[in-house]
Design brief:
single chain, Pnp Oxidase, Chain A, 32% strand, globular
Length: 183
């Protein structure tokens, strides 16, 4: 049924790249577990045991806060089309913000999208799949364009204000974006 892998090989990379959605799970040492769906063209395999995704501006910053506190993260991808499969990538994540030296080089791996507040880079420690027999078959229709339209309407200055208001801390009060702390 399930298998544990030493690395993300070409077959796993192809599976990952074919998925339209992935899920991110993190938790603080003491507080609420966070599970977030992610989409758009925002996930990349960087190497056999390293992945990254663009973290867009949003109404909360749980993942950022949890990673700053303890680094633990799990990515889950599941096939909604084609053969059933669930893939989990367990690892340690790092938040790379736009002011960080590594941001520009990592950003080059992604489309030039609007509103990236950070890049989450993950060193993968465990790669495991399971059957996915209970996951329904769903048909992908299209990517939503609402995030782009929302960000464009806000404009750069109001996006900064929004992040200062919404992304300074997690719902449990843990610090999130570093640049917000300095403002």
């Amino acid at each position: 049924m399930g298998e544990i892998y030493d690395a993300i090989d070409d077959k796993l990379r192809a599976f990952i790249e074919a998925q339209h959605v992935f899920f991110v799970a993190t938790a603080p040492r003491d507080g609420r577990v966070n599970l977030s769906p992610k989409g758009l063209d925002s996930f990349r395999v960087l190497g056999p045991r390293q992945v990254a995704y663009i973290d867009y501006v949003g109404s909360g910053a749980e993942t950022i806060a949890h990673l700053r506190e303890n680094g633990r993260i799990t990515i889950m991808l599941c096939s909604f089309e084609g053969p059933p499969k669930i893939l989990r990538l367990h690892g340690t994540g790092e938040v790379i913000e736009p002011q960080d030296d590594a941001f520009a080089a990592l950003k080059a791996n992604f489309p030039d999208d609007i509103a990236p507040r950070s890049i989450i880079r993950i060193d993968v420690e465990r790669i495991a799949d399971s059957c996915g027999y209970g996951v329904p078959v769903l048909t992908f229709s299209e990517e939503r364009t609402l995030l782009r339209k929302w960000a464009e309407k806000k404009g750069d200055d109001k996006l900064v204000d929004y992040q200062i208001e919404k992304n300074a801390a997690s719902i449990d009060g843990l610090p999130a974006l570093r640049w917000v702390e300095r403002t």
